[in-house]
């Protein structure tokens, strides 16, 4: 086990377990990689107020101390970001990437919590565009986030996704994958990868379920773990698509507000006790 691959997630904590760094660490484990985390924010949900989300950022100095703890173990094989609690954290993280020569960087530009309509910390979007995308191996926005990064009001079709991907690529990121999901105006659930030269479509049947909490985090984490294990970007995205589709298919109801994906589905980890 001396050559086990190491992956860091720098993300917010979702105490309901479906998304955030909890989803990332579960995914890393299912891929056979060793997961580390640096918590950027703590997200709570109020069951007495329609599951309303509140985000409590962690001080950037404490986030940095967590990262230093991780880096004491040597070079990482990949890093994935999720919700980044402040512009200060984003600025700090960009410096850490340069100082430690981190590669295989997956930037998941989390802007909205599932079930919420308001953009989480909108000032972070510009900082992500300017400081993290040029350092990223791949970024994984959903349709809404792609529109925000690309400056397009609505991304609804595959042609919209292609235009958004082109614009995001111009920000300096090496690869863009836009998650279509069930909101896409298409018969299939389509994710689109753009490497600056060609578009690659990854298709799956749309699933009639609301048990998809954490699907985006899981997809991005799976790509990071795949890259850590030496996969090409195309292969990492392909397997992540399969992994996440299986997780959604086996999702379950947590409560009346939310249903998370089941991260053990791809490897057929049983959740039941006989």
From TrEMBL:
Organism annotation: Paenibacillus motobuensis
Family assignment from sequence similarity: Belongs to the ThiD family.
Gene name, Swiss-Prot/TrEMBL: pdxK
Keywords of this entry: ATP-binding, Kinase, Magnesium, Metal-binding, Nucleotide-binding, Transferase
Any one Pfam family match given in the protein's UniProt record, by short name: Phos_pyr_kin
EC number: 2.7.1.35
Domain Pyridoxamine kinase/Phosphomethylpyrimidine kinase intervals: 14-262
Enzyme class: transferase
NCBIfam families: HMP-P_kinase, PRK12412.1
SUPFAM superfamilies: Ribokinase-like
InterPro entries noted in UniProt: HMP/HMP-P_kinase_dom (IPR004399), PM/HMP-P_kinase-1 (IPR013749), Ribokinase-like (IPR029056)
Reactions the enzyme catalyzes: pyridoxal + ATP = pyridoxal 5'-phosphate + ADP + H(+)
Stated name of the protein: pyridoxal kinase
Any one Gene Ontology molecular-function term assigned to this protein's record: kinase activity
């Amino acid at each position: 086990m001396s050559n086990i691959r190491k992956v860091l997630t720098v993300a917010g904590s979702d105490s309901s377990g479906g998304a955030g760094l909890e989803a990332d660490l579960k995914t890393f484990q299912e891929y056979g990689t060793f997961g580390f985390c640096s918590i950027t924010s703590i997200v709570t949900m109020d069951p007495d107020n329609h599951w309303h989300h509140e985000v409590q950022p962690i001080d950037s100095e404490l986030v940095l101390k967590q990262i230093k703890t991780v880096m004491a173990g040597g070079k990482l094989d990949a890093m994935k970001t999720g919700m980044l609690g402040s512009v200060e954290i984003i600025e700090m993280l960009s410096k850490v990437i340069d100082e430690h020569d981190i590669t295989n960087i997956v930037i998941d530009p989390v802007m909205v919590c599932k079930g919420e309509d308001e953009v989480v910390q909108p000032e972070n979007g510009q900082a992500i565009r300017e400081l993290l995308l040029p350092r990223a191996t791949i970024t994984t926005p959903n349709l809404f986030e792609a529109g925000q990064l690309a400056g397009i009001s609505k991304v609804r079709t595959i042609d919209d996704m292609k235009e958004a991907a082109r614009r995001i690529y111009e920000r300096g990121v090496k690869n863009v994958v836009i998650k279509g999901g069930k909101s896409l105006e298409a018969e299939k659930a389509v994710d689109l990868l753009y490497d600056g030269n060609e578009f690659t479509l990854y298709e799956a049947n749309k699933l009639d379920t609301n048990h998809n909490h954490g699907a985006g985090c899981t997809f991005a984490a799976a790509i990071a773990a795949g890259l850590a294990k030496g996969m090409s970007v195309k292969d990492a995205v392909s397997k992540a698509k399969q992994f996440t589709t299986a997780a959604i298919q086996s999702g379950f109801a947590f409560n009346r507000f939310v249903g998370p994906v089941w991260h053990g589905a791809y490897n057929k980890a049983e959740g039941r006790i006989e």
